[in-house]
Amino acid sequence: MKVVIPFKFFNPKSRLSSILGEKDRKTLAILMLKDVIDVLKRCDCDVTVITPIHIDVDAKIKLDQRTLDDVVNEELKDVPKAVIMSDLPLLNEEVVNRFFETDGDVIIAPGRRCGTNMLLVRKKGFRVSYHYGSFLKHLKIARELSMDVKVFDSFLASVDIDDEGDLLELMIHGKGKRSEEFLRSLGFKVEFEKVPKLVR
Predict the structure, then answer these.
(1) How far apart are CA 87 and CA 28, in angstroms?
(2) What is the Cα–Cα distance from 113 to 199, expressed in whole angstroms?
(3) What number of other Cβ atoms are within 10 A of residue 171's Cβ?
(4) CATH class of 2-160
(5) How many angstroms separate the first and last alpha carbons of the chain?
(6) Is the confidence at residue 88, as pLDDT, over 90?
(7) Dihedral angle, C-alpha 158, 109, 96, 198, nearest 10 °
């Protein structure tokens, strides 16, 4: 399967700026990207990272400074193709393979806040519109094009790392991931009281 991963290099994960400086946020973003690439490589995917600046990862790099929508819509001229976000460090081979095996013209794995974390398009003509409830927008776009659209339900695919609560999920479920090990090296840990809490 051909997979593209859009990657934002400049000022990544700005919503974590209250607990992580820019250098650590960049390191975390790159390690999460590597976590995603590791899984896709084990699933025999042809992976291309689309980014505005060269980064050292085990995948093809395509330099592009356009907006996310423009970049992805250009890629979707060649289908079938999957678009997987770079901040899904909890992905594993079972989830990815099940996603690819789901029947339909358009397969969408939603995030927990109505985003689109993974997208698989098998039929030409679909165009993305990310941000601001993209999951619902993508469902509508596919249906208006009379495409067979399926929703892929997976907790591990739904956890995209944007804020402190998401880091808690990574620390709980991400044992052995590069990004989880980095957070532990910074002193983060989970305290179990009445509810789990991220502390440093």
Answers:
(1) 9
(2) 24
(3) 20
(4) alpha beta
(5) 39
(6) yes
(7) -10
Mean pLDDT (whole number) for 136-163: 97
Rounded Cα gap, residues 85 and 138, in angstroms: 15
pLDDT tens-digit series, residues 93-106: 999 999 999 999 99
Q: Which amino acid is at 122?
A: R
Tokens of 18: 């209250």
Scanning 16-144, the segments in alpha helix (DSSP H) are 22-42, 68-75, 93-101, 134-144
For CA atoms 64, 70, 74, 80, the dihedral sign is positive
Residue type, 16: L
Residue 17 φ/ψ region, left for φ over 0, alpha for ψ in the -120 to 50 degree band, beta for the rest = alpha
User: 3-state DSSP: the chain helix, strand, coil percent, rounded to 5?
Assistant: 35, 20, 40
Asked if residue 13 lies in contact with residue 29, where contact means CB atoms within 8 angstroms, the answer is: yes
- Tens digit of each residue's pLDDT (9 = 90 or more) over 36-49: 999 999 999 999 99
